[in-house]
Amino acid sequence: MTVTAPAEATPRQRTGQIRIERVSVRFDGGAEKRAAILDISLNIEPGEFVCLLGPSGCGKSTLLNCVAGYVRPAAGTVCVDHLPIDRPGPDRGMVFQQYSLFPWRTVCDNVAFGPRLAGKSRAEARAIAERFLEMVGLAHFAGRYPAELSGGMQQRVGIARALANYPSVLLMDEPFGALDAQTRAMMQENLLRLWSEFATTVLFVTHDVDEAVFLADRVLVMSAGPGHIVADIAVPIARPRAPDISTSTEFIEIKRQCLGLIRAESLRAFAEQNR
Amino acid sequence: MVRAAVLHGAIAGLSLAIGLVFWYWATRIGAHWFIRFDNVPTPYQVGSALWHHLGETRFYLHIAVSLRRILIAYAIASTLGIGLGLVAGRSRLVRSAVMPYIEIIRPIPAVAWIPLAILMWPTEESSIVYITFLGALFPILLNTIHGVEQTPEILVRAAQTLGASRARIFWHVVLPASLPSIATGLAIGMGVSWFSLLAGEIISGQYGIGYFTWNAYSLIIYPDIVVGMIVIGLLGTLSTFAVRLVMRPLLAWQRKAR
Ligand SMILES: Nc1ncnc2c1ncn2[C@@H]1O[C@H](COP(=O)(O)OP(=O)(O)OP(=O)(O)O)[C@@H](O)[C@H]1O
Ligand SMILES: [Mg+2]
Description:
Strand content of chain B: under 5%
CATH class of the largest domain in chain B: Mainly Alpha
Number of domains of chain B: 2
Number of helices of chain B: 11
Number of strands of chain A: 10
Order of helices and strands of chain A: EEEHEEEHHHEHEHEEH
CATH superfamily of the largest domain in chain A: P-loop containing nucleotide triphosphate hydrolases
Structural class of chain B: mainly alpha
Largest sheet of chain B: none
Structural class of chain A: alpha/beta
Number of strands of chain B: 0
Largest interface: A-B, 29 and 22 residues
Shape of chain A: globular
CATH topology of the largest domain in chain B: MetI-like fold
Oligomer: heterodimer
Distance between the termini of chain B: 18 Å
Bound molecules: adenosine-5'-triphosphate, magnesium ion
């Protein structure tokens, strides 16, 4: 997979600041409203790679969806570059947990859709799509339909599609969750390479500790009942990172810290349930 | 692959041949079981009657009149059905307004409409087209609503995040996502429109293949009854096939998904 960013992608953008202030989200849980996340505050600087780490159901997707604009918080505000978020928009790209390509569009047309919506001509949009497909190593599959691609390839197209809009923030909801270990490792490396080219802010949801530590500048450990952030752990490992850093003492130490926090939280939750 | 196709073709042919032989035999001996075959024309009589009519302009006139009614009714039904279905599928308000009519009118068979249709519409022709239209409308409308409702939310979200407005989402996501369901509705609607047309034609009018069939009964020309039936069956099958053929290029992507 070769990485050659298009010329207009290179300027190190200083946009993509995320400011989350005292955000709570409630869903209808039968009779009463139940808080999915409660009173979360959080700042993410432009160009940062932040991982949200936590067990299933703790509210990671909910928090991400607030930034994306799909979910309106019951309280609090989310601002991206000082503008309050009230709806989805092309400044915040999204890569979904499930496959979300348009099955009736070819791979190329999927990626070209964003540029087309942004007012680019058919030819321009096509050229952009081809460049981005090349970046994720799928130039040869431009004319195929999503159903003809493997899961990992579809997810790469999803990333290309999100990046083709040059979003200042890239939101990723367990994008590699359904992939096997080898593919996943390859995808993580590629993502880091793309990110270093684009310098876009990334908010990446995962429940895999290794993935979080490998990718992130900061790991935010979340806990359930209702969802909140229990720790903000910096990952000062030098970049670019090769896969073998996962055996370094530095990596293992941070991982141990995360695992300890998660374990303490699950013990606490378990004790609470049995009280 | 080829061998399997030949085998299935052979079985189909054999099955048809057995049916024909049975028909011939039952009519030839004038079988008189619980159902009676003594008044049923033989395959030979039907074949020669069909041959005779194929050389007649009047026969084609019957077919042309039926086809014209189908075309007019079907065009109106698909325009209205798809249009209203798309809106009702997206808007809960419109759906609440439309649904009661669907629930009440849909179960009423075409035949039951005939007296009122004749009273309501200025000409016999328009009442027959109206009944045909009703038959085609509901499958198309309901399948369109269903298709729109089935649009995966994640695709809508993906489009929103790529910068699509509501109108663009409708055109680029909701419409293609519901197209398979709309195509099904169109195919079913075509079948039902023939069904309804025949009901209308049997009871009124001087032209049409349904009239031809019923008239043959009144005039005691029994082979023509079967000729009419065969032509109706063929036209129904062919027109449904034509609908599928027209929709095919729009659904090319779906075949890749299997
Ligand atoms: N649309 C909704 N309606 C009602 N409850 C919801 C809805 N979406 C999420 N929830 C609830 O909110 C909580 C958090 O859900 P969320 O999807 O954010 O978890 P998650 O951390 O992303 O989990 P996973 O890792 O399994 O994806 C869960 O308890 C869930 O049941
Ligand atoms: Mg989730």
